[in-house]
Amino acid sequence: MVKEQKNGKQIVISPITRIEGHAQVTIFLKDDDTVRDARFQVTDFRGFEKFTEGRPFYEMPGITSRACGICPVSHLLASAKACDAIVGVSPPKTAIMLRRLMHMGQLIQSHALNFYYLSSPDLLLGMDADPAVRNVFGLIEKQPEFARQGIRLRKFGQELIEKIAGKRIHSSDWILPGGAKWPLTKERADYLLSNLPEAQESALKTIALFKKWLEGFDEEVENFGNFPTYYMGLVTADGGLEHYDGKIRIMDKNGKIVAECIEPTKYNEFIGEAVEPWSYMKFPYFKPIGYPDGAYRVGPLARLNVASYCDTPLADQELKEFKKLGKNGVVQSTFHYHYARLIELLFCVETAKKLLEDPEILSEHVTSKAMVNNYEGVGVAEAPRGTLIHHYKVDPQGLITWNNMVIATEHNNIAYNMAITQVAKKYVKAKQLQEGMLNRVEAVIRAFDPCLSCATHAVGNMPLDIKLVDADGKLVDRKIR
Amino acid sequence: MSIGTVKLKIDGVEVTVPEGTMILKAAKDNGIIIPTLCSLEGLTAYGGCRICLVEISGSPKLFPACITSVSTGMAVTTNSEKLKEYRKMAVQMLLAERTHICSVCVADEHCELQDMANQLGVDHVMFERNWSRDEIDSTHDFLVIDRNRCILCTRCIRVCDQIEGVHTLDLKLRGKDSQVIMDLDEHWANSCSCTSCRKCAKVCPVGAIYIEGEPIGHTKRKDIAEFILTRRNRK
After folding, report:
1. Max CA-CA distance within chain A?
2. Do domains B5-79 and B86-234 have the same CATH topology?
3. Cα B57 to chain center, whole Å?
4. Helix (H, G, I), strand (E, B) or coil at A399
5. Which CATH number fits domain B86-234: 3.30.70.260, 3.30.70.20, 3.40.50.1370, 3.40.50.300?
6. Of A56, A62, A63, which is closest to B136 when you measure between CB atoms?
């Protein structure tokens, strides 16, 4: 990572559109106007870790899940698991099944949001299309059936959450340290089951369509954040794809497992966090390698790279094809986050079916009661965007004394910067600056699906302010979209 | 007019009530509901929340209906534009005084302050908020007090004293600094008088006193004082 330099031209993209939250990209130019470096800067500051101090631990799922309106369930689960550890109990089996099912709903709705609403306008309408139509409305006009599938899939995911926990967003009333407050009724389970076939069909159709599109994106696959890093994700005891429980596995660029069966509680033994003065977001790295060479990626691409299998028939079939895209089964191109996301979408639909068909899901025993037994607890879950860790310390009364949240999006921070630099070097020509060039820089960030705050995304019409500044800091050119 | 009764007009309707009745009760007995946060059937009146302010013709002042008794010929207005504005202001002051964040509060959707704000159309707080950071006492086995959510209605103190009869709870300090305390400002677990009867949690209009792990909808029971008094009187 290149440090701050006073001289030199730079291009600023702020804010980046069609992502969740606010960020900007600054592209630094050399004297001959070629790209020297690019930085992904997060301009949000939230302060959750500080203002939760002094609150009772059982309020934490409700408070911390407010960090995000897109993936609140992942925060709820990581937080509830940290609280489970504080009370020192295992939730009843049905509560775990319900939490897992709710998480499937979360992953389905979030993946559908990224793919259909945020990313597919670039893929379907073209990177250079007019920004006025390169959005979800343009998509609806051009491919109404495709857009409908996306909207329906997202609805299905949200309904899964709502039928279990009462609300689509911020359903924190339902979750409880040690389990959940109420069981799932048969009527609701039947309703969800009746909607499953459509969801599965939509997921399959979209994967087939995406694979067709892929043929036209060879250049992007080659240049969109295509570089080696480490990969991190949760896996089951025998290496299967996992989002709720399991152990952490870390893999290197050659597919060699460099850390296996790591208890999530020991995350700080292998993840270090570096800080740069130009971003509010920390830069986590794989400790044994150091910063910045220990860059690793999380999220759908990383999860499919580290997982040996999915454990659902249709997703396993796709996983085999996916693994062929990379050497030794390790897929390096950030562009393939899209493909990985769709495979996970299918996996989640299949897993939801498996869970809903198990009669035990309707058991009424969902709560265990306990008081504070441990003064520290770590909870981990695979959020749509990657491994999410909540780590709390409490006093004997159960009031929070210390809180550390490692947000999924943070893990990819080094990789974002590597990816945008690669894309900017390939596509941005400062002498003939065009909107489509900068859109490619944004598109590679969209592929990661960062979630920078609970702010809802804009639909392609947020102002894009690009500044070209010369060596003396004078504004040479400016384009406002 | 029979002996011991008083005739007055409430919102233009002539009513007859026993002498000494408070306006709030007189109105309620005649089907007119005056909003309030601190008053509760079965407990003595306190006059702390100022939500039940009413107008009495002939006086420029506003009167709290819960502690103003009726008198002959009185003409009371319970619901004018002026009163609405004052009530809205009182609710905003309560919201500004401490830290009220409904979305992460245990009492969300079961809160009298929240209901009152909705009912009065309070969609913003015009005063600068204090954002209090008072210590939470969760030393008791199951009762918790979060003073950041307390609106100082003193229902808990009155129910503890008048119904349970132990007077564990009381107030310390004055004005906005007032705090509900246990015994001589002990941690709850160290209180030797508390019987853990839960009545304080049952009558708390907000999420200041609650039972850990219990859905607040199960805990709240506004009629507990009246219920117990009725049972006692049956003997």
Report:
1. 70
2. no
3. 26
4. strand
5. 3.30.70.20
6. A56
CB B108 within 8 A of CB B117: no
Nearest CA in chain B to A179: B213
A243 — contact with chain B (CB < 8 Å)? no
Residues in Cβ contact with B118 at an 8 Å cutoff, skipping those fewer than 6 apart? none
Nearest CA in chain A to B189: A397
- How much is the ipTM here? 0.79
Domain ranges of chain B: 5-79, 86-234
Contact A66 B103 (CB under 8 A): yes
Q: What is the pLDDT of residues A424-472, one digit of tens each?
A: 888 877 777 777 777 888 888 888 887 764 222 223 333 334 444 444 5
Q: How far apart are CA A84 and CA B16, in angstroms?
A: 60
Exposed (0-12), middle (13-18) or buried (19+): which is A7, by Cβ within 10 Å?
A: exposed
Q: Is B135 on the interface with A (CB under 8 A)?
A: yes
Q: So what CATH class is B5-79? A: alpha beta
pLDDT of residue A463: 33
Which string of DSSP letters, residue by residue, matches A152-200? Answer: HHHHHHHHHHHHHHS-SS--TTTEETTEESS---HHHHHHHHHHHHHHH
Supply B195's token pair. 């019987």
E strands present in A225-375: 230-235, 247-251, 257-262, 271-274, 283-286, 296-297
What tokens were used for B64? 């709290």
Structure-token match 């949001």, residue found = A113
Q: Which residues of B31-54 are buried (b: 16+ CB within 10 A; e: fewer)?
A: ebebbbbbbbebbebbbbbbbbbb
pLDDT-derived band of residue A170, with 50, 70 and 90 as boundaries?
confident
How far does CA A393 lie from the centroid of its chain?
26
DSSP-assigned beta bridge partners for residue A467: A12, A478
**pTM greater than 0.90 (yes/no):** no
